[in-house]
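Thread: Newbie trying to understand structure tokens

Hi all, I'm a second-year student working on a class project, and my supervisor (Dr. K.) asked me to get a predicted structure for one chain before our next meeting. I've only ever worked with sequences, so writing a 3D structure as a token string is new to me. If someone could post the tokens and maybe explain what I'm looking at, I'd be very grateful. Here's the chain:
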Amino acid sequence: MTTKTAAAAARATVYGYPRQGPNRELKKVVEGYWAGRTDAQALRDTSAELRLANWRRLAEAGIHEVPTGDFSLYDHVLDTTVAVGAIPARHRAAVEADALDGYFAMARGTQDVAPLEMTKWFDTNYHYLVPELGPDTVFEANSVKQVAEFREAVALGLTARPVLVGPLTYLLLAKPAPGVAADFQPLTLLDRLLPAYARLLADLRTAGAEWVQLDEPALVQDRSFAELGAAARVYRDLGKLTDRPKLLVASYFDRLGEALPILAKAPIEGLALDFTGSAAANLDALAAVGGLPGKRLVAGVVDGRNVWINDLGKSLTTLGIQLGLADRVDVAASCSLLHVPLDADAERDIDPQIARWLAFARQKTEEIVTLASGLARGTDTIATHLAANRADLAARKASALTHDPAVRARAAAVTDTDARRGKPYAQRAEVQRAHLGLPLLPTTTIGSFPQTAELRAARADLRAGRIDGVGYEERIEAEIRDVISFQEKAGIDVLVHGEAERNDMVQYFAEQLTGYVATRHGWVQSYGTRYVRPPILAGDISRPDPMTVRWTAFAQSLSDRPVKGMLTGPVTMLAWSFVRDDQPLGDTARQVALALRDEVNDLEAAGSSIIQVDEPALRETLPLRAVDHAEYLAWATEAFRLSTSGVRAATQIHTHMCYAEFGDIVQAIDDLDADVISLKAARSHMQVAGELAAHGYPREAGPGVYDIHSPRVPSADEVVDLLRKGLAAIPAERLWVNPDCGLKTRGRPEVRTSLENLVAAAREVRATLPNTAS
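---
Reply by user tm_fold:
Sure, no problem. This is what the structure looks like when written as tokens:
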């Protein structure tokens, strides 16, 4: 096909779309089902309505080929586990009795059965459910969901492309099942898994699918020779199948690297590649392997993970180069639009100047269609769009909203000494133990307590003017009194104020810092029915006034036990926001760190002897390629130390991390120089404790003993068992007892019982230690 013909054939598509609906209808109906307010049929009907609305919206916008199968009631990796029949043994009875309830049992657990482990999807804040596999795993194709959703789209008269997690990525994301040797490699099951994929593909072809997309984002990570060989074998074997649709292999989030020539030569019909950010290197790499003659290229030139408008002119230049590299070039976002909010036009409170710089899922869809039209019919047909886009980009670059000279001067003046505590940890630890007087195995929680309907109503009443600021503060004070009283009665050693005043651990701070923009409707799925509204980091950052001191000091006034000050760390403030893309991340992190440093110092001055600065996103933001790790970790750890190093030796600095894999960043955790770290560990059976021990981590740690992402109430015996595993790796004088994460999403009754069991377990184990009393 000539370049001119390839351009004329250019079409618009997307890999996936937000699932929740404009008013989070999916969250409401799923949670209604869990609570017994909604039946299964209503859940299915609402889900179908949301899918149909998405497809119609995409088609009306000009998308030529819509994705199917990307919609999920909880998680698309869990959907893949169901599709290949890899149901864990402990969940099989539930799945056989009722497929829907069994599905949610795998996701959330029940009082009798633990759920699947949950962790981050590559370097995003989306969480997936980790497949559990072992030597006895038997795969069996189940194409019901994929075929049904494809047929729903076709019934609307649409061209549809089913999307599946690819077999290689599925196995590389999996872990050994409980009871299976830790060194078991799920990739050894490849020959057993491929027939299930062959069956899925055959069923989709029978249903009428012309193309199927297999997502292989794992290939943008560093892969061994054996893993790359497995990739070659997967797409050689699937490509040779005769009873299958055309195969489009998609990879995103970074450059494809060593896997690109393998996939380019494979007997498949198309590749979908990311060409944004560091993945822009895919363009030169594609040219270096001779392009994709005779194949389809889906070019991800619109950033699917951030909310800034596309540089249409730059993207058209990239697309023009690609026309000479493939038989057909289609235009898409860099990844599924699952990672951005639904519609920027729904935001009425954002400065109109800033609003013109924003593109959510609907606007990105429009950008994709515009680019495809310009590529197919010539730039003259989109001249008006291009002129408006150039003006908006220039306005953003020149805006005073994005540059504060005072902030930049302060950041430029930072020295290495500013990011170092005055005394080393060993000396600080002695001072802190004498000052705090805590028992061995001190108990605490991570920070938040359940956000009740009363709290949400209080915030709504304040926004609507039904109560004034004084009335709102009275309600928050009453909640804090209740939380402090409960913790004291339960026997918790180090208390928290419960964060009743906070809507979200990032948004709360963003609303009080300059440079951030908050949304009203910018919901993005984090996991299951948990949606967050990431703020938008549009300009330079400073802290006009204290943000947490008033509430922490009030809570401390209610108890003689230490109450932790609670802040969100600089890396997480970036990772869980839509960060500005017009300067290096490290520069932005330093600005946030200096603002937080002011807050930490004010907390100490107000009497806080323990201050926790949470960095759950430190691991998730780690670049996917090892060559990029050192630069990232240097500025990330410096930012944390800069925010915490202005306090006295007696002030104990805590940090918290959750729902990611930490084994490969233990040195960075060490480099944070926090006095105490708490981490998620309950679902992974204390794996992280062993990783800390193997590294020789010298500080105090609290690997979680209570999985808060499940409604299960752990028994005291379960917690005792986890604590003993923890003690096998971490000495008693350095081991803390705490949940995996904050308790915001849980209900009060289950939290009460769970924490009582946690304290009872700590006392039981403490009583068995030398020279201790219960």
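A couple of things are worth pointing out once you decode it. The chain has a mean pLDDT of 95. The chain has 29 helices and 20 strands. Feel free to ask follow-ups in this thread.
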